[in-house]
Amino acid sequence: MEVPRRPQPSSFTLALPKPLGAIQKVTKKDPVEEKLQEKDGTTEKNQFGEETFSTEEKSGVSVLVEASAETSEIEDLNTSSVTDSKLSSQDSFSEDSSISEERLAQEAEEAKKKSEEEEAAAKERAAQRQLLAIEELVHSERNYLRLLQLSTVTIRSNLQKLQPPPANLDSMFLYIDEVIEVSSRLLSMLDQKQVRPGDPQFLETLCDSFLSLSSDIEAAYNEYLANYNHITVVENSYKQKEGLWNEIVKVIKASAPDVNATSLSFFLVMPVQRIARYPLLLQTIQKHTDQAHPAYALLEQTAHTSIALNCRINEYKRFREV
């Protein structure tokens, strides 16, 4: 009986590692560099098989280094230039700020001067308007008195010469003499002071004169306005007689050729209008008078007095009518 043989291991060989000297150094190449090297044909290898640059490449590297250094210098110059520019800008901004402040100060001074000039001009205009308002009051008072005297002296006397004279003629002129008298006294008081309307003291004189005559003014106008309805009634009776009325109109035109009047009521309504106009004239003067004026408080009192006079006269008129 044969004993089976053990299977013999098949022969095989192991690949031994190569000696260290035989190991080649592997370097990773840049594909771009390989293409450039293949194109130029200037790549060299050292003893370890490493690629080295040729002399031209080294020169190129040197040029690149120098160019890099020049670029760095240029950047430094640019940085210095920017810094200088910033400093110059700051200096320019400082100068502009200084100029701007001076300009603002100059403009503020000019604005202040202009404001002062405008204020002075406004005060001058107000003073001129105040003077015109005072002159208007005085001038209109003189003209008012002249027309009243014309109606009572010239026209009245000429109407009385008619044959026969108009009936109830004297009743139309009731109480007008008292109105003329108080107006004459007011103007006389202003003339006696010998001050002109442009004089600062004239306003005080005017107010004092009006206030001192306020009670006499009220008394005279009370009766005249209470009788005024009678004046209109009498005149309407004249108008109903055509021949008489034509004669009256002729006398009025001949007695007052410079006045475009065609009736007696043209003159006789003037006291009614005048007493109502005093407050308006005085308030106009007050409007254009500076509150710092010495006579301002007195003027204000005079204006209030004239308003109160009108109220009391109207109340008296209504009382008489009842």
Quote the average pLDDT: 80
Unreliable stretches: 9-17, 19-28, 39-45, 47-55
Q: Could you give the order of strands across the largest sheet?
A: 1-2
Radius of gyration: 60 Å
Percentage of residues in strands: under 5%
Number of DSSP helices?
10
Gross morphology is elongated
- The H-and-E topology, N to C, reads as HEEHHHHHHHHH
Structural class: mainly alpha
Biggest beta-sheet profile: 2 strands, antiparallel
Q: How far is it from the N-terminal to the C-terminal residue, by CA?
A: 182 Å
Number of strands: 2
Helix content: over 70%
Question: Could you give a short description of this structure?
Answer:
By secondary structure, the protein is an all-alpha fold.
Question: Would you mind describing this structure in some detail?
Answer:
The protein is mainly α and 322 residues long. The protein contains 10 helices and 2 strands; from the N terminus they run αββααααααααα. The protein has helices at 31-40, 55-160, 169-172, 176-192, 200-212, 214-239, 242-255, 265-268, 270-287, 296-321; strands spanning 44-45, 51-52. This is Rho guanine nucleotide exchange factor 37. Residues 27-43, 100-121 have a biased composition (Basic and acidic residues).
Itemize the secondary structure elements and their pairings.
Elements: H1 31-40, E1 44-45, E2 51-52, H2 55-160, H3 169-172, H4 176-192, H5 200-212, H6 214-239, H7 242-255, H8 265-268, H9 270-287, H10 296-321
Antiparallel strand pairs: 1-2
Helix pairs in contact: 2-4, 2-7, 2-9, 4-6, 5-10, 6-10, 9-10
